[in-house]
Amino acid sequence: MTGPNSKKLYDRAISSLVGGVNSPVRADPQPTPAFVDHGEGGHIVDADGSKYLDYIMGYGPLLLGHDLPELVREAIDEAVAAGPMYGAPTELEIELAEFIASHVKSVETLRFVNSGTEATSAAVRLARGHTGREKIVVMQGGYHGGHESFLVKGTPERSRPSSAGVPQAFAEQTLPVPFNDEQAVRSVFERHGDDIAAVLTEPLLGNHGIVTPVEGYHETLRDLCDESGALLILDEVITGFRVGGLQCAQGKYGIMPDLTTFAKIVGGGFPVGAIGGQAEIMQGFRPAGEVFESGTFNGHPVTMAAGLETLRYAEENDVYGHVNELGEHLRSGLQDIVEDHAPAYTVAGTDSMFKLLFTRNGPPETTGHCQSGCEQRSDCPRFRTCPKTGAAVAAGETDRWKRVFWPAMAEHGVLLTPNQFESQFLSYAHTEADVEGTLDAYQDILSS
Ligand SMILES: Cc1ncc(COP(=O)(O)O)c(C=O)c1O
After folding, report:
1. Ligand 1 probe mutation, 23, 150, 238, most atoms within 8 A of CB
2. pLDDT of residue 427
3. Domain range for residue 124?
4. What is the pLDDT of residue 30?
5. Over 80: is that where the pLDDT of 405 sits?
6. pTM here?
7. Which of 59, 143, 297 has most ligand 1 atoms within 8 Å of CB, for mutation?
8. Same domain, yes or no, for 122 and 159?
9. Which of 155, 186, 209, 327 has a 20 to 30 Å separation from 139 between CA atoms?
10. Is the CB of 210 under 6 A from ligand 1?
11. What is the pLDDT of residues 278-299, one digit of tens each?
């Protein structure tokens, strides 16, 4: 899909940017990625003028698509014209905090930072400060950003750095368990319960799947945390204000975490992160408490304005109705296509998230399946074979997905996230016609 202008830009970029990009995933597809010229609603246009239906949507932040509604744009322009930032508090920060706290049940007070990574790092520091303990439990295949405590792989008995440059001493404080495996997490608490500061988990695996929770899994985590005195940190960086609408995934799944991390949509397309939770725990942060957290750009007025107006727009318009309906349509259409052409594959996702997982083993029955994305229903004929962990997703036909399927979709004008693992997103700018066109592309490719 890469045209001559993108190739020239990449050639130029590798002289001044490491690997030619500022985030590794943007180097895909190999050998040279397409450079974006601009966005148009649900589409992007690349440096060669080719237009693609975009389901990457900035990896999640663009709930409203590439064209911001007039009101959102005006609020951003106003904040830019007024400053654009001061290193002193503004009313916008209070308004966005009040908006989030009034919609997300577990959140009383917040601290705004600048990325999801900053949010998860600070939340874990706060949990360690609150409990006086050091270990954290994370999910294998979960993603919480590029911090030493999360760049860890392996098992609770043999955890090790997943990146060069991360000391083993960090890895030893991180206990990775398989998502959806109650027994595994119970065993970890039996062994390390007195040392565990927090369980950090996404409500669903959004960076290694999508894998939704089996019934009762989050309740088990909640119970284990309560029994041992650990905190439950829910990482809603992807799902916040996308899954479950304004109440977020914790509302949809009935989870009551101690702390929640947000980012992406909360900044309306600008860099943001946030930690929210019960005031009693949150006041551990300085200046109220003793846990250090600080940032020049924290609560940046332009970001606050963009996030606030985006969320207000979602509240006042049928944004979630629209994106979730498109999601249902897309996932149920995919389910029909795979039943005919690739019955082993699993349609995954919920609300406005979707992915077709190229799983290898499926049951022969094609009746009684979840109709619009795997819900981990125990009475579904696929229940025993649909992926429940990150490892189960990784065991799929990942090379076929990346080398054969992804380029074929791009040739059909549909831009998916360039690996088998990361979620794809619908936006308010996508239309029924876009979804129909996307289903035609899947049908063409999977039936050939
Ligand atoms: C669940 C989750 N947590 C944390 C992060 C890190 O966020 P950021 O890239 O803003 O640092 C991500 C990024 O995609 C994420 O998906």
Report:
1. 238
2. 98
3. 70-316
4. 84
5. yes
6. 0.97
7. 143
8. yes
9. 327
10. no
11. 999 999 999 999 999 999 999 9
